[in-house]
Amino acid sequence: MAQALHFLIPTSPSANRTFSKLAFSKPSLFPSFRRIPMTVVRKQISAISSDLESQTSSRILASDNGKGGGAMEAIPALQTDSSSIEVDAVTEAELKENGFRSTRRTKLVCTIGPTTCGFEQLEALAVGGMNVARINMCHGTRDWHRRVIERVRRLNEEKGYAVAIMMDTEGSEIHMGDLGGSAPSAKAEDGEIWTFSVRAFDSPLPEHTISVNYDGFAEDVKVGDELLVDGGMVRFEVIEKLGPDVKCRCTDPGLLLPRANLTFWRDGSLVRERNSMLPTISSKDWLDIDFGIAEGVDFIAISFVKSAEVINHLKSYIAARSRDSDIAVIAKIESVDSLKNLKEIIQASDGAMVARGDLGAQIPLEQVPSAQQKIVQTCRQLNKPVIVASQLLESMIEYPTPTRAEVADVSEAVRQRADALMLSGESAMGQFPEKALTVLRSVSLRIERWWREEKRHEAMELPDIASSFSDSISEEICNSAAKMANNLEVDALFVYTKTGHMASLLSRCRPDCPIFAFTTSTSVRRRLNLQWGLIPFRLNFSDDMESNLNRTFALLKARGMIRSGDLVIAVSDMLQSIQVMNVP
Ligand SMILES: Nc1ncnc2c1ncn2[C@@H]1O[C@H](COP(=O)(O)OP(=O)(O)OP(=O)(O)O)[C@@H](O)[C@H]1O
Ligand SMILES: CC(=O)C(=O)O
Ligand SMILES: [K+]
Ligand SMILES: [Mg+2]
Predict the structure, then answer these.
(1) Which of 138, 169, 353, 393 to probe ligand 1 with, by most ligand atoms within 8 A of CB?
(2) What region holds the Pyruvate kinase barrel domain (predicted)?
(3) Ligand 4 centre from 409 Cα, in Å?
């Protein structure tokens, strides 16, 4: 028979409080489960084919987020049982071939740029495991970004993917303009004199001239300051100021990319004069945000966040303008201020990004790894998804294989159990976007497997985060279910969740097995695609768990995605419950 625990929430909050509190004391809750032989944990579910046939409107949509290291060919979505199930072929093939254990837990974000904006290129990335497509509003026009969004949406509709879209704002930090003319980049050589100017130029710019977006630039810098492009990829020394022009000598040569960030340093510290008063969200950013809301992007990532207020402000702005207000706000941690106010910022956000590119320009490089670890841990504790970004495979912009150091860096982010890894220039304008994605995928799979083989269960202390009694119940259920899943070595956790909240609570526990997250909403499904270990499905389900489970088993079995005898723990946020059973 099935083992089930149901927790009924008292209608009056005080009614059964004492009882429920007792029932939820964590360590003693499930002591007997470990000793239950597997054969006892079994439920016979009667034949359900007729039930299935009657549910002509029910469909399952699964994403590719479990894409493992298998075949790379693009296979069109299959629809054998057309009325009842729809699933992209990548997830399906992966589960059929290798079973639950081999599914990838770490999610992958790809920045879309000139080399990946076509439909076929986007599809190749989806087949290769892209869970989220990022568009950076620093570059390109809104029309260009709109076309990318349309293609990703078409890909999802035609092939059953759930690739989410993340729009990243430009922010109002100081940066270079476009280089003008046909050249996408320019090389600054050692000792060359370049002019950084706030004047408005007609394209093409005079030789060795760079435009700067911040009007106060020429007033704020001083002769002798060090000017860092892109956090130090290229360095200059300020030698002369002539009205709006600042003459600089190149001290560290390198490539000048369009719209690269500029920081200036005096006596070894970052100078933050009036530019620190610039708003986090510029007027251009607000227009981009309106565009993102109108296009229905899934995430808006805010650059150079300084405080929690800006996140709260943006969230109310979105809530007032977006009908279902289901756009998640990601705080980019890339400034000294964002590190200072880390906890409040993450608390206010729906997720965070370790934006190491600019972060490394604002704090000494050797402090970036410990900052990364702290951001990843804080996000996990507060139950917010976290993305590790920038230069993961930088050399692959030009070369088809990564350096050993890059592979070690990717491995470390996977070992830290970050939710997602992000490609920037590697996928936006590099020569080997698909190869770079393959490296992220195979390193993730390998490290995750090593972790499981070594039985390195998480020891991280997860503080209580619930803000209501009902949320506390959900949290305790998920913590317990994840622990049971590890102890009983189950094949998968199933979670039926309307808002996605219980799915993310399970993900936060980083259990050993994958989490099948069933949700009724397409947009929740896409958003869950950013979170560690979740395989999100869209499914119409009812409040009757028995019937939900019957249908899910039937639908997944019909596609060969699960087998009789697989051991599953199911939780649900309608009827707060934990059930343990073998697939009939
Ligand atoms: N839409 C685009 N059009 C043209 N080039 C792009 C586009 N998106 C990215 N790129 C190129 O890819 C590079 C890396 O992209 P990415 O957005 O990650 O970097 P970035 O500008 O340094 O990021 P951020 O401004 O968020 O710190 C950019 O420097 C740019 O050259
Ligand atoms: C991604 C980004 O914005 C950075 O690394 O700076
Ligand atoms: K940006
Ligand atoms: Mg940045």
Answers:
(1) 138
(2) 104-436
(3) 19
